[in-house]
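Late entry, 5-S-methyl-5-thio-alpha-D-ribofuranose complex.
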Amino acid sequence: MSNYHPLSEAQAIEYARSIPDLFQAGSELASREIGDGNLNLVFHITEPATGKSIILKQALPYAKVVGESWPLTLDRARIESEALQIEEALCPDLVPHVYAYESDLALTVMEDLSDHVIMRRGLIERNQYPLFAEHIGRFLAHTLFFTSDLGKNQQEKKVQLGRFINPELCKITEDLIFDDPYRDAETNSIEPHIRDAAEKIWKDHELHLEVAILRNKFLTSAQALLHGDLHTGSIFIKPDSTKVIDPEFAYYGPMGFDIGAVLANLLLNFAAQEGWSPDPESRTAYRNYLLQTVKDVWTHFERNFRALWNEHGVDRVFQTPGYQDHFMASLLQDTFGFTGAKMVRRIYGLAHVADIDKIEDAAARERAQRMALAIGTTLIRFNRQAKSIDELIELAIKESTV
Ligand code: SR1
Ligand code: MG
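Prediction complete; structure with ligand written out below:
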């Protein structure tokens, strides 16, 4: 990586010109840095004369959200581009196309999705996406099944696992999701009005036991190649299209972690309706839409996953009657637990979500925060008893009305 340097907007244009067969020789190009995530630079390059455009995504050697004091491997750009290419082979309509990867610059050249919006923003604006559950359920089923010992040659899976050892990014998750929220850690960012709720969680040993069990799964259960950070800021959407982006946290981990990420972010928006819905009826209507989506995501995932298993299962022993049901029951339980853990960290951990932080009315924001913590901790506590996705919906409703 000796030639590495972070690009300026002008250098991004120069780089874009060097990509063969993309833009017309000598034509005018415009460049804008549009990255609003926690880690990377993102340049939007356009050629006004033809309307062509691309995205250049460049990893920085530190975590942008904290600054240069938090160094971060550039290898995450390789992991991201390789994961995107695997995902594209499995679900071509659900990820952006990667044109090129430049390892020296930790740079990925990919399809521009500016006709989509970041789903988190779409949900804050209270839009509905009727195809989302089918799309993301299929994405989860295909990526998780075909990279696991259920659907991939098991020797090749071990080799692929080696290419996705991602220790630094995994450590971020291990700390920010499975440790720091459960103690008075310096990285936590706690609004004073909910400090009492955080302190209660720090003393809740029953909860800590469940978090320890989930943390162990995150550390040791190499079930499938995960996206690793599948929140609604990692999804571009429009009514007829869903595109999953940003798999730089990809590694071999427990399947329920990816499913839980999707459900957690729908439920964070559910809690955030305290601050976004103008009146009680519209709040209930949008919340019902979100809960139905939670249920549909799991249902589409399960239906697709079981069908893939029945048709493409590679392991004779795993066809043993009863084993598929056992596996799915355990995966549902993991999903409950990871959903809860991913909610709690977003309320007073290091990195929050705009759905809640951008609520201007402090009282409404506090109600949303407490509701998200109540739902999240309840799901963590209940995870090993879960039997059906309907229970998750019932628990969310119950915790939103107390
Ligand atoms: C230091 S990175 C903070 C968070 O941003 C990413 O999107 C991940 O969710 C990570 O935990
Ligand atoms: Mg990201």
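The radius of gyration is 21 Å. Will revisit in the morning.
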